[in-house]
Each structure stands twice: as C-alpha cells, then as structure tokens.
Design a protein that fits this description.
5 helices, single chain, 10 strands, about 20% helix, alpha+beta, about 250 residues
Length: about 250
Amino acid sequence: MKRVKMIVAYDGTNYSGWQIQPNGVTIEGMLNQHLSELLKEPIKVIGASRTDAGVHALGNVAVFDTSARMPAEKISYAMNTRLPADIRIQDSCEVPADFHPRFCSTVKTYEYSILNRRFPDPTRRLYSLFYYYPLDEQKMQEAAGYLVGEHDFKSFCTHKEDERSTVRRIYSLEVLRKADMITVRIRGNGFLYNMVRIIVGTLLRVGSGYYEPEYMKEMLEARDRQVSGETAPPQGLTLIGIEYDAKTVQ
C-alpha cells in the first residue's frame, strides 16, 4: 500500500464544488470515479481545500491510498487521458503514509479577479467578477493592510459549527490593477469558510467609496459577520497553490 499525492487543476464552472454532494457533479467525485477505474480498486481521495461551486484551482492537492503497482509518477499521465478537459492532474508522486493534506502546516495562495469596466466581456465572464462602478485600488490596498498578520477573522467568515477557531494569519494581501482587471492576491496559513470572498466583497465596498479604508480595522475588532461586506461571487476566485514544508512530504 502506498500514498499518492496529486496536484489538481480545474475549471470549477460546471461543478458543484470539490466535496461530493448528493445531487451534483463534483471534482472529488470525478477523481474517485476515474482513479477507481484506472487502478481497479475503490479509491477515495482526501482534498486539501474543499472549494465551493464555481471556484477554480491551479494547484489544489489531493492524496489517496492504493495497492496498485502503477508508479505514482505515472498516475498523472494516465488520469489525464481519462478525465474531462476541465480537470487536469499537474503532478503525482508518492508521499509518506502519514501525510495528510489538511493537517500539515501550509501556505495557501488565492487570487480573485475583478473586471472593472463599463461593459462586460463575455470571454472573461467565467473567471472574473464584472463590476461596473469605478474602483479605487489604492484605497482597497490601504484597507487590505489592516488584515495582514494574525487576527480573529470572525467578521469575515460564514459560520460553521465544526470551526474550532476563527484565528488565522495572512502573510500578504495585495490589490493589483492591470488595465481593466483588478486582482486581489492573498497568502495565508489557512482560510475560513467564504473568508476570501467576504474579504473581496468588503474591499469592493471600500474601492467604491462606501467604506473608508480604516473601517476595516473596526470590522476586525467587532468579530461580527453583520458588519462586513457581502460575499463576492465564486467565479472570480482561483486557488493558485498550496505550499507544504518539504519535510512533511519526504
């Protein structure tokens, strides 16, 4: 028996998120199905990040156990001949049997894309949020600065009963504009349910002048979801990658 780690990229448009749902096609479900067919044994993957419906990924991580003789590094190639075109394995390798993608120290990077222009662009509708009103990215960056560091992010998450702590650390939070596209890039040691999308929704209110940048500090201290902005739609969000300490995967 060996444990195999895969890096998974996908366009989340046509899926009901990562996690298996009773009435929806999911990334986890597709991986389980095609791995089981390939390796001729029941396979259940464990994912690092359970992304929501419509959210994309370039570098999500999944592991599974198998007794198949196929070398771990060959599984990525074999899977890519079976999976639909909107899911692709970027790498596969063997890892220690006790490696768990969710219970290790990590740095996760997300990006959220905002198309800020007068009219929508249909070619970018699946991968960005169209926002008509002018946005001041400098004010958004000023507000973002208040969130960097270790804080209680209770104001910026959707409550889940199994969440033991709402304290997280953000290493960097950048608001970058290139022509009509604004990218919010965030790196942290973990994120609460809907945390990135709520942060983006709040930054949109700052950028449009509804909130002053310094109000971000008050929202943090309030620890109350009611005081922060709306949850931004899923299609603008992409999980860029997950970094592990090298010692945990050797």
